[in-house]
């Protein structure tokens, strides 16, 4: 507080020093009772101040020879309280002055305009006009000149007459002095003043432009926006009360009301933006409630300026200046506090604030003083302008350096992710071939039992490796927030048991004992994904083995309840420098070859399943605690839909010959997939990329096109689009397209379907699944397969309404716990279909209906599955009314379903 008092004392002392200096600047000779004596050979302009003759409610004849008034008034000053007239600002009258200068000399006058309407005469000749003065508000028209006019020279002595009327401002009369000197002296003074003013404007405009350009380049940085707009607002305000360079392109006379609004609004905007700039730079030092109060007051003032006439809102200047000074003091104190805590930026701004406060205090003290109309705040803000510019430049430089480092890290991470993505794709391609070949060998009845066993080992190893590849892709989606959890029933007890068995040899190699502390827990069901749970537990136990040390023990315990809690404890202690960043990416310690991704990915997987993973460490060792939600109405495993249909030999034998073009850039995938399609009825030709596929289709148009999504030369998406274009322009028969990809995200599926594919399958594709999709497409292509959908609106309800027995579904008792959640998911899917129809998103409807068909059919909801299939096929071409009616029927059917549970054999036993 002592330093604050010193600061305020210094500020007031500076104001007291500057105030006399401002008031004593070049005081000219004073007029006495309407007569002003000027010396010979003036070398600088002289303000025509003092006692002018004054006549109230009379426009004096400008051709007077002797002083035509008996009353006198101080100039410059408002006439609001002059003796001889009613108090107040409104009215009209004349000012006269006799200027005695040496005979033979010639003087010109700089005819500064008054705050409202005025007209100036010299020796009976009108030399300047600002609007049109009149005896009433209806006859008076206030205006401002776009520049200060300089009259021609007149021979001495001079007789000046000024007619003034005021009905538009709080302070009327002769408020701004005129200046007299030889014309060349006035011209030189004006040129110097314009040069100074232009330099000030250029500083504001250039600084503001640079700040705004920086904001355009970096839109997330809002401080340059506020600072740039502040500079522009100050430039407008400075020009309005200065040389009015911005008005030069406009007509010579500007309406006073428009000019006043521009001046006041720019002033209010500058104060608001000034406060926002400092708040952005010092958010903790400047209270938000103070900012809100001040902005509210300024907003109300701006509203008054827009709505009220100038005669009313011009009264805002006194409270406005007082608020500006108060806010300036508050900001200076805030900056002083920050500077005391060692803030360099605060010291820089404090120096600029000193100039602003001194200028605002001077303006407040001189607002209605009988002296030339000066505004020191523009110079104060000009000095202040440098301080936030320096602070912003310092911070932006630091931000740019940090962003450059961050960009480098992001580019490296993106490169790593691209390499990993490519690696995943490249790994999945041969894996698909291995799994497909293993399945074909497994189905070969000529293999001996030991060979069948080896093929089974090969299949399980391939599937495990495929799961690991898919998991790495899942981790990437978890990082980016795009992972879609597919919850199922997971017995965490079984997962832990399998992990302990799998890591037993690893623990023995490290001479570590694995202790299972919860043998009484028979089952602990959670709602999650089994692969994710296995990966988390295996990671925690493996890390605990490595951290425990030789001849030590790792203890694993499990507790069931509303939340299933798994703890893994080892006697080792996490180093203090690592403990605080234990779950951060790339943080590792005490392990050679560690990547720092294990615990990071484990917590990602836990949170993806609405769980949490935490670590506690100390002298007693380290405990990692995994918490997962217990099973409550979980969903059935989505894998059930994959076995919805098993192909039968009967439909294959009845199928006519079909030409199939198989396109994949991996030769093993082409070999394995072609073996999945029996011949007859399928005749399979292959191509290695999309370009070769278009050439092959030019020679022979196939019934089926099976192709990979990502291929060189021409990918699957472009190839499908080319095929659909050929069908539309050259009347080719419709080719049924099945696109396959190692990408299992919905975005890839949506792109494939939008390009024109009929189905999208995720690799590896089993023989059963591929033939089931072909059977679906064959059924859909039969005459009348889509007839229901292309009848008038309401046809689905009339001709395809469910029967009473369709409303009753019988489910095995083993699904009793999970079926309600499954049914709710299907209802939500139907709601999403309704939204897609209302928004006209046909491809989304098609995708949702296709997904619902498989799930509903797998659970025995045959009418709902059929309705979903009809919606899927009708999505591209049926009217929105028909689709809306079909979705409505599906939603009502799902709402009316009645469920019975039949006991299973195991339950009966």
From TrEMBL:
Transmembrane segments: 198-216, 223-241, 264-282, 294-312, 318-336, 348-367
GO molecular function ontology, one term from the record: phosphorelay sensor kinase activity
Annotated ranges, domain Histidine kinase: 422-632
N-terminal signal peptide: 1-26
Reaction(s) catalysed by this chain's protein: ATP + protein L-histidine = ADP + protein N-phospho-L-histidine
SMART domains recorded: HATPase_c (SM00387), HisKA (SM00388), REC (SM00448)
First-tier enzyme category under EC: transferase
Keyword Coiled coil tagged: no
Enzyme Commission number(s) from the entry: 2.7.13.3
Keywords carried by this UniProt record: Membrane, Phosphoprotein, Signal, Transmembrane, Transmembrane helix
Name of the protein in question: histidine kinase
Modified residues (4-aspartylphosphate): 708
Limits of the Response regulatory domain: 659-778
A Pfam family annotated for this UniProt entry: 7TMR-DISM_7TM
The keyword Phosphoprotein is assigned to this record: yes
């Amino acid at each position: 507080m002592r330093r604050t008092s010193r600061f305020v004392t210094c500020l007031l002392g500076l104001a007291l020093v500057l105030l006399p200096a401002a008031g004593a600047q070049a005081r000219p000779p004073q007029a006495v009772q309407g007569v002003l004596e000027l010396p010979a050979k003036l070398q600088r302009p002289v303000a025509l101040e003092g006692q002018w003759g004054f006549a109230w409610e009379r426009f004096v004849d400008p051709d007077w020879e002797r002083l035509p008034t008996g009353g006198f008034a101080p100039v410059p000053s408002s006439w609001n309280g002059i003796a001889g007239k009613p108090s107040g600002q409104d009215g009209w009258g004349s000012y006269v002055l006799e200027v005695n200068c040496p005979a033979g000399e010639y003087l010109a006058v700089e005819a500064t305009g008054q705050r409202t309407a005025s007209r100036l005469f010299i020796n009976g000749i009108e030399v300047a006009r600002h609007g049109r003065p009149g005896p009433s508000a209806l006859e008076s028209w206030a205006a401002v000149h776009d520049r200060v006019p300089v009259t021609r020279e007149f021979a001495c002595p001079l007789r000046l007459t000024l007619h003034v009327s005021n009905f538009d401002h709080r302070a009327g009369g002769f408020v701004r002095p005129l200046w007299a000197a030889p014309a060349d002296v006035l011209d030189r003074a004006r040129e110097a003043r314009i040069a100074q003013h232009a330099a000030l404007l250029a500083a504001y405009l250039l600084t503001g432009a640079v700040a705004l350009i920086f904001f355009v380049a970096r839109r997330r940085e809002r401080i340059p926006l506020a600072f740039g707009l502040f500079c522009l607002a100050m430039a407008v305000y400075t020009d309005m009360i200065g040389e009015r360079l911005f008005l030069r392109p406009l007509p010579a006379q500007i309406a006073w009301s428009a000019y006043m609004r521009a001046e006041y609004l720019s002033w209010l905007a500058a104060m608001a933006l000034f406060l926002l700039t400092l708040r952005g730079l010092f958010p903790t030092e400047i209270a938000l409630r103070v900012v809100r109060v001040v902005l509210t007051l300024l907003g109300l003032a701006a509203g008054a300026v827009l709505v009220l006439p100038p005669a009313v809102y011009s009264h805002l200047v006194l409270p406005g200046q007082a608020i500006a000074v108060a806010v300036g003091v508050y900001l200076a104190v805030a900056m002083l506090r920050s500077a005391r805590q060692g803030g360099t930026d605060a010291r820089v701004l404090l120096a600029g604030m000193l100039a602003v406060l001194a200028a605002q205090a001077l303006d407040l003290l001189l607002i209605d003083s009988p002296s030339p109309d000066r505004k020191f705040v523009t110079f104060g803000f000009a000095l202040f302008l440098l301080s936030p510019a320096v602070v912003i430049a310092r911070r932006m430089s630091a931000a740019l350096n940090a962003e450059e480092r961050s960009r480098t890290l992001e580019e490296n991470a993106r490169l790593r992710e691209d390499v990993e993505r490519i690696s995943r794709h490249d790994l999945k391609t041969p894996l698909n071939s291995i799994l497909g070949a293993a399945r074909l060998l497994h189905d070969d009845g000529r293999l001996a039992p030991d060979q069948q066993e080896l093929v089974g080992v090969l299949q399980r190893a391939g599937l495990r490796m495929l799961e690991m590849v898919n998991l790495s892709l899942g981790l990437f989606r978890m990082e980016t927030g795009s992972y879609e959890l597919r919850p199922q029933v997971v017995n965490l007890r079984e997962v832990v048991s399998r992990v302990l068995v799998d890591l037993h040899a690893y623990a023995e190699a490290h001479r570590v004992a694995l202790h299972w502390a919860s043998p009484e827990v028979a089952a602990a069901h959670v709602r999650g994904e089994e692969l994710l749970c296995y990966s988390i537990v295996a990671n925690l136990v493996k890390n605990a083995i490595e951290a425990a040390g030789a001849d030590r023990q790792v203890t694993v315990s499990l507790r069931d309840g509303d939340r299933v809690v798994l703890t893994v404890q080892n006697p080792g202690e996490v180093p203090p420098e690592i403990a605080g960043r234990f779950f951060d990416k790339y943080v590792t310690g005490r392990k050679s070859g560690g990547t720092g991704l294990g615990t990071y990915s484990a917590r990602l997987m836990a949170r993806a399943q609405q769980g949490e993973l935490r670590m506690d460490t100390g002298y007693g060792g380290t405990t990692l605690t995994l918490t997962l939600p217990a099973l409550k109405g979980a969903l059935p495993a989505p894998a059930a839909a994959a076995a919805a249909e098993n192909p039968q030999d009967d439909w294959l034998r009845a199928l006519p010959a079909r030409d199939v073009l198989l396109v994949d850039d991996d030769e093993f995938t082409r070999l394995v997939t072609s073996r999945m399609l029996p011949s007859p009825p399928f005749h399979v030709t292959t191509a290695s990329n999309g370009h070769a596929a278009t050439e092959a289709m030019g020679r022979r148009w196939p019934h089926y096109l099976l192709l990979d999504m990502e291929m060189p030369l021409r990918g699957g998406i472009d190839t499908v689009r080319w095929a659909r274009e050929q069908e539309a322009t050259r009347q080719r028969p419709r080719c049924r397209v099945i696109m396959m990809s190692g990408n299992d995200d919905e975005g890839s599926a949506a792109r494939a379907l939008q390009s024109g594919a009929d189905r999208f399958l995720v690799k590896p594709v089993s023989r059963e699944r591929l033939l089931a999709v072909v059977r679906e497409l064959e059924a859909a292509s039969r005459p009348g397969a889509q007839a229901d959908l292309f009848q008038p609106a309401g046809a689905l309800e009339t001709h395809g309404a469910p029967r009473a027995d369709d409303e009753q579904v019988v489910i095995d008792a083993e699904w009793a716990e999970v079926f309600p959640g499954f049914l709710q998911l299907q209802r939500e899917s139907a709601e999403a279909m309704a939204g897609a129809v209302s928004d006209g998103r046909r491809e989304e409807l098609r995708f949702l209906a296709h997904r619902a068909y498989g799930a509903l059919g797998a659970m025995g909801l045959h009418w709902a599955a059929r309705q979903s299939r009809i919606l899927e096929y009708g999505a591209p071409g049926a009217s929105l009314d028909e689709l809306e009616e079909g979705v409505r029927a599906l939603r009502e059917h799902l709402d009316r379903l009645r469920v019975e549970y039949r006991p299973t054999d195991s339950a009966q036993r």
